Amino acid sequence: MAQNAPSITYRKLKDDRPSLTVVPPKTKQQTFKKARWSLNDYIFVFIISALVGAVMFASLLLSNATTSVNNQLETASSQITKLKSENDKSKQKITQMTSLSALKSFAKKNGMTMNSENVQNIDK
User: Fold this and answer.
1) How many percent of the chain have pLDDT more than 70?
2) For residue 58, how many C-alpha atoms fall within 13 Å in the half-sphere facing its CB?
3) 107, 114 contact by CB (below 8 A)
4) Phi and psi of 85, rounded to 5°?
5) pLDDT above 80: residue 56
6) Domain assignment present for 94
7) Would 84 be classed as within a structural domain?
8) Out of 57, 77, 94, 107, which could bridge 112 as a Cys pair, Cβ 3.0 to 4.6 Å?
9) For 24-51, what is the mean pLDDT?
10) Could you give the CA distance from residue 88 to residue 102 in angstroms, rounded to a whole number?
11) Residue 24's pLDDT band (boundaries 50, 70, 90)?
12) How many structural domains is the chain composed of?
């Protein structure tokens, strides 16, 4: 690496120009007064705080109401499902009890006989 170094030595040339000196700017210490809140500022902050509180309270009430309505809906849905299954069982039992073979066995058990003169056919 030393082989690549320039062989000429650089010398600082004497400069006849006057040198420039940097003069720091004069800073004046600024003092600030504390900002004073006016009555309007206090009223504005109070109104905003009251609105935020009201929105939070309303969201809590709405959440609780939604939860209770969901619970009632689940209860009603389970009751509906239970009643539908009971209705289906009752319909099946009615169909079995009103079948011709069930009616004949009931009549035979209770000593009834069929009189063809008393039978009427009704078209639905």
Assistant:
1) 84
2) 6
3) yes
4) -65, -40
5) yes
6) yes
7) yes
8) 107
9) 89
10) 19
11) confident
12) 1
| Contact (CB, 8 A) for 102 and 96 | yes
Mean pLDDT of 63-87: 96
97 pLDDT higher than 60: yes
Backbone region of residue 29 per phi and psi (left: phi > 0; alpha: psi in -120 to 50; beta: other values): beta
State whether the Cα torsion 24-25-28-32 is positive or negative: negative
Residue 123 domain-assigned? no
Give the chain's end-to-end CA distance (angstroms, integer): 118
Q: What is the mean pLDDT of residues 85-102?
A: 92
Which is nearest to 100 in space by CA: 114, 117, 118, 86? 114
The residue range of the domain holding 81 is 40-108
**Alpha carbon distance 104, 97 (integer Å):** 10
Rounded average pLDDT over 11-23? 65
Q: Looking at residues 80-109, what average pLDDT do you find?
A: 91
Do 78 and 71 meet the contact criterion of CB atoms below 8 Å apart?
no
Q: Token pair 């073979």 is at which residue?
A: 101
Is 8 a member of any domain? no
Q: Which two tokens stand for residue 58?
A: 């309303």
Amino acid at 12: K
